[in-house]
């Protein structure tokens, strides 16, 4: 019975219906009038996640509490936190600039702007490395384990498409 042609045809039909249902249930582009190019999704992501500086401040508060810093570690923490806050503020400005280009600039102009933004981001990360290294040097073994797990950049990106 399981190998009969009628059973196979029925199973294939049921499978095709399941695939069609899944395709119809998949979310489409938020703006059906335009092709889905990712810019609308990035803008929606930005609105949902708020200001990078606020996010960084909340993350730093949690990290500092988890590290249970000693008095002698505070100066290294302050320098590190200031560097992270500065980078987060720059990230907001960068994101706003890219959003301005999203609808008006040509593809080559957007690519050039993106390359320039990545170069600025790399320079900012390099500028922040000494502060992170100095903080890491004064942490205990237990604190280093927490820092390795919770510090900025220690987690892979999360969310749709990642």
Could you name the ranges where pLDDT drops below 50 across 5 or more consecutive residues?
none
Give the strand content. Answer: under 5%
What oligomeric arrangement do these chains adopt? Answer: single chain
Helix content: over 70%
Q: SS-based structural class? A: mainly alpha
Largest sheet: none
Quantity of strands, as a count: 0
Q: Count every helix, treating DSSP H or I runs of 4 or more residues as helices.
A: 6
Straight-line distance between termini = 44 Å
Mean pLDDT: 78
Spell the H/E element sequence. Answer: HHHHHH
Gyration radius, in Å: 24 Å
Signal peptide: 1-25
Keywords: Signal
Protein name: Spy/CpxP family protein refolding chaperone
Pfam families: LTXXQ
Give an overview of the whole structure:
This protein has 162 residues and is mainly alpha-helical. The protein has a domain at 53-152. It has six helices and no strands. α3 (52-67) runs antiparallel to α4 (74-104) and α4 runs antiparallel to α5. The longest helix has 32 residues, at 107-138. This is Spy/CpxP family protein refolding chaperone. Keywords: Signal. It comes from Ideonella alba. It holds the Pfam family LTXXQ. Residues 1-25 form the signal peptide.
């Amino acid at each position: 019975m399981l190998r009969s042609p009628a059973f196979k045809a029925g199973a294939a039909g049921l499978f095709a219906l399941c695939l069609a249902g899944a395709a119809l249930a998949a979310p489409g582009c938020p703006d059906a009038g335009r092709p889905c190019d990712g810019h609308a999704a990035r803008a929606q992501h930005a609105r949902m996640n708020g200001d990078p500086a606020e996010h960084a401040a909340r993350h730093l508060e949690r990290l500092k509490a988890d590290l249970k810093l000693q008095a002698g570690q505070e100066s290294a923490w302050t320098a590190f936190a200031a560097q992270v806050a500065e980078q987060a503020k720059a990230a907001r400005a960068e994101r706003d600039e890219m959003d301005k280009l999203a609808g008006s600039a040509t593809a080559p102009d957007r690519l050039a702007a993106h390359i320039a933004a990545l170069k600025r981001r790399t320079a900012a990360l390099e500028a922040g490395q000494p502060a992170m290294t100095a903080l890491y040097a004064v942490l205990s073994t237990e604190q280093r384990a927490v820092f390795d797990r919770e510090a900025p950049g220690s987690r892979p990106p999360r969310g749709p498409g990642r």
